[in-house]
Design a protein that fits this description.
Residues 1-18 form the signal peptide. 0% of the residues lie in helices and 45% in strands. The chain is mainly beta and 651 residues long. The chain has three domains: 6-13 and 603-650, no CATH class; 42-314, YVTN repeat-like/Quinoprotein amine dehydrogenase (Methylamine Dehydrogenase, Chain H); 326-600, YVTN repeat-like/Quinoprotein amine dehydrogenase (Methylamine Dehydrogenase, Chain H), CATH 2.130.10. The strands form 15 sheets. The protein has a five-stranded antiparallel β-sheet, with no helix packed on it. It is elongated and about 80 Å long. The two termini are 15 Å apart.
Length: 651
């Protein structure tokens, strides 16, 4: 690949070559975004789950990930000027920036209750609220925060002070809670809202007398007398309203679950629906001025309007928010996922940009796919009425041909959850009631073979055309004669099986359990891991392996015995994994999630360096400063890992 001479700069001992999980779909992130702030139409910041903070300087066309130093969920953001701002999150976390959001420092308050909202009526005075009725106040611009009594223990979701009025403010929360202070937060009184529904959002746009509160079941209430009375307003929706914001006392917007967005121009008396091409939950509105409005929501969605809400641009790059159940990469650049409905799958030619893949499945769920090379692949799943879906492609996923089910009656025609090809022609699929089916012509047709038990089989793996394993609710089964007969070799529910060779194999299952065999499945031992959630899939290359599971669990091992948790910017369920090599790993999961693990740039290095000349081997992997593999480098700084030695290259 790279045969010419280059200058190599090898840094001294504190050269750090770290790893990081990056979002590839949706892009730039797929986490639920909960806080948004814009300084002007070009420069803005969002924050959300798993410690995600991103900044844009071009109106949201591109986003830069900011190091938050945490993987806790972040719920709200507020700036008191162009430089100083605050983010609040889970476990009483406060993040503070002094440089416009480029860097953040942590401030921890105890006890560790979640903070959900923050508001500063002026540069000195600010308020936080959250779980257990907790309210905190600062009077010195955030240098310190002190607890203030609320008199209640309900969850407090939002806080609002009118601009430049640090004396009168309001907080809303669970069970119809509305609180008011008239003395700058020294004390708070409970107002009568007339309901027990949860209020998630409150806004007093111009003065402390006229304000709005909204929440569950599309409920909106308005006060014109400082909260003494609240009048119900017809919202036009029954979806929970997550955010209500007004430009002034007449013009306002609310957003909520299932892509709900509406606008009023008469103080909330009437709300006009705004139709969006998405159905994800919308969590927060930020009104910059009469023209520029921004919204963030679940699955990384960011919306922008520059004409007062008449037209909206989606700033997030995505194809579908399906629950991806299976992933396959026959080579480094060509990859496939499947799992959801319309589209049932996606494909990529570069590992980054994805396109929908019509799998000829109508409204069926495709549970698994497997590619033996970049053009030939097979898939299995669930057709309507609990029938079997089988299909194959010969053109890299651009078109799929349905394969007839085996000619046997049920249960052989029941859905299949996994498939594996030990060779180009021979493949196996497993599913309900212990059923296993087999192909000998690359998935063009399938035939029934002996069942592996009577339970639901989730995983199949063959070390060669005849020797293989099936795992599921009734344990692990083994065959040595191509599925003509099966014997149970281990009694434990497992969700995935992977063998490194004919003797060494692994399985994963409930409550973070991993099982290992070193004698071809005759005996299995349980390996304790730091995980407590279900593990859904695992993959090995040599002794390096990964396992993924529910609630964003990722485990890594380099010896098959000791496993460590790897933090990732996602807390949804992860369903499958594929390793390109020991450095590059793809994982997929719920809500359209696809993430990739790559080496990233140097964190720290001494000034002393040695300059040498040498050739780069054909098999060396070259990375740019973002961790992406580069095939045709231009002038710049790159990183290389060659024979386990890590170096910097300057072209």
């Amino acid at each position: 690949m790279f045969k010419k001479l280059f200058f190599l700069i090898i840094l001294s001992s504190i050269f750090l070559f770290s790893q990081e999980w990056q979002w590839v779909h949706p892009y730039p992130t797929g986490v639920n975004l909960r806080g948004i702030w814009f300084f002007n139409p070009d420069v803005g910041i969002v924050c959300g789950d798993a410690g995600v903070i991103m900044k844009t300087t071009d109106g949201g066309q591109t986003w830069t990930k900011i190091n938050s130093q945490t993987y806790r969920n972040l719920h709200d953001i507020h700036f008191i000027n162009q430089n100083k701002g605050f983010i609040v999150g889970d476990s009483a976390l406060i993040l503070i920036t002094e440089d416009g959001g480029n860097t953040w420092t942590r401030r921890q308050i105890t006890p560790y209750y979640h903070f959900l909202a923050i508001d500063f009526p002026n540069a000195d005075t600010g308020f936080l609220c959250g779980y257990q009725g907790k309210i905190y106040r600062t009077t010195n611009g955030g240098n310190s925060f002190a607890s203030r009594p609320s008199g209640i223990t309900e969850i407090l979701y939002d806080v609002s002070f009118s601009p430049n009025n640090g004396r009168i403010g309001y907080i809303c929360g669970y069970n119809g809670t509305i609180l008011k202070t008239t003395n700058g937060g020294d004390s708070w009184q409970t107002l009568n809202s007339g309901t027990t529904i949860a209020f998630f959002t409150i806004n007093f746009p111009e003065n402390p007398n006229i304000g709005y509160v909204a929440g569950d079941y599309g409920q909106i209430r308005k006060t014109t007398n400082g909260g003494q009375t609240w009048q119900a307003k017809a919202s036009g929706t029954i979806n929970p309203i997550k955010s209500i914001k007004f430009l002034n006392n007449n013009v306002g917007f609310y957003c909520g679950n299932n892509g709900t967005l509406r606008k009023t121009t008469n103080g909330g008396d009437n709300w006009t629906p705004i139709n969006l091409p998405i159905t994800v939950n919308l969590n927060k509105i930020f009104i910059l001025d009469e023209n520029n409005i921004f919204i963030c929501g679940d699955n990384g969605i960011i919306l922008k309007s520059n004409d007062g809400g008449e037209n909206w641009q989606i700033l997030t790059n995505f194809v579908a928010f399906n629950n991806w159940l299976s992933i396959s990469f026959p080579n480094r650049n060509t990859g496939f996922v499947c799992g959801g409905l319309s589209p049932a799958g996606m494909r990529t030619n570069n590992g980054e940009n994805w396109e929908p893949m019509d799998m000829n499945n109508s409204s069926f769920i495709v549970y698994a796919l497997y590619f033996i090379n970049d053009v030939n692949g097979s898939a299995c799943g669930d057709a309507h009425d609990a029938q079997l879906y089988l299909a194959y492609t010969q053109d890299g996923g651009y078109s799929w041909t349905r394969t007839p089910s085996p000619p046997n009656p049920p249960p052989d025609t029941f859905p299949k959850y996994d498939l594996h090809f030990p060779s180009a022609s021979v493949g196996y699929a497993c599913g309900d009631r212990g059923t296993v089916i087999k192909t000998t012509n690359g998935g063009r047709s399938w035939s029934s073979i002996s069942s592996a038990g009577t339970g639901r089989n989730f995983s199949v793996f063959f070390v060669d055309n005849n020797t293989g394993f099936v795992g599921g609710s009734a344990g692990i089964y083994k065959t040595t004669n191509g599925g003509s007969s099966w014997s149970r070799v281990y009694d434990a529910q497992v969700f995935d099986i992977f063998f490194i060779n004919s003797q060494v194999g692994y399985a994963c299952g409930e409550a973070g359990k991993i099982y290992k065999t070193v004698n071809g499945g005759t005996n299995w031992t349980t390996i304790q891991t730091p995980a407590t959630r279900n593990l859904n899939a695992l993959f090995f290359i040599n002794n390096t392996g990964y396992a993924v599971g529910d609630m964003g669990i990722v485990l890594k091992t380099t010896d098959g015995t000791n496993w460590q948790l790897e933090p990732i910017p996602f807390k949804g369920n992860l369903n499958d994994i594929w390793m390109i090599n020991e450095e590059e790993v793809f994982i997929c999961g719920d809500n359209g999630a696809i993430l990739k693990r790559l080496p990233v740039a140097i964190k720290e290095a001494k000034e002393k360096k040695i300059i040498i000349k040498e050739k780069i081997s054909q098999n060396a992997l070259l990375y740019d400063v973002t961790g992406k593999i580069v095939n045709k480098p231009k002038k710049g700084i790159y990183f290389i890992k060659e024979k386990k030695v890590r170096k910097i290259i300057i072209f």
